[in-house]
Amino acid sequence: MLAIVEADLGAADVRALLALHLAGMHASSPPGHVFALDLSGLRTPDVTVWQARAGGALAGIGALKALGDGTGELKSMRTHPDHLRTGVAAALLEYIVAEARARGYRRLSLETGSGAAFEPALALYRRRGFAEGDAFGGYVPTDFNQLLHLPL
After folding, report:
1. What domains does the chain contain, in order, with CATH numbers?
2. Would you state the pLDDT for residue 29?
């Protein structure tokens, strides 16, 4: 059974998964095109981070950033390598979408990279109703990123 709760950003396993996430983003995107939040960015009052645990083991993380205009931004989605393809990302995404709705957001948006490394995540987002759309939150569309939105 998967338990999703607010993440303890001081926990060693959470910090390790966040470090893996950042390293993966930097390995898969050119310099200047990585917008993943580091630990200090995740500690701001406008960001809530959740962890998914399976039998006590960290299975994944995901975050929601309030943009202040009735929109939320999905951030820092990462499944632990030991839990890939087990539904962790889908469960976290559904949880965060429900939270965005509960907060009264009109739209949930995300920015992610382009290329093979991002295809599994993009497939999940599209299956859940996200579609490519306009720029938001200061992002500039490039060949190296994609901007997706889900009306709520």
Report:
1. 2-151 (3.40.630.30)
2. 75
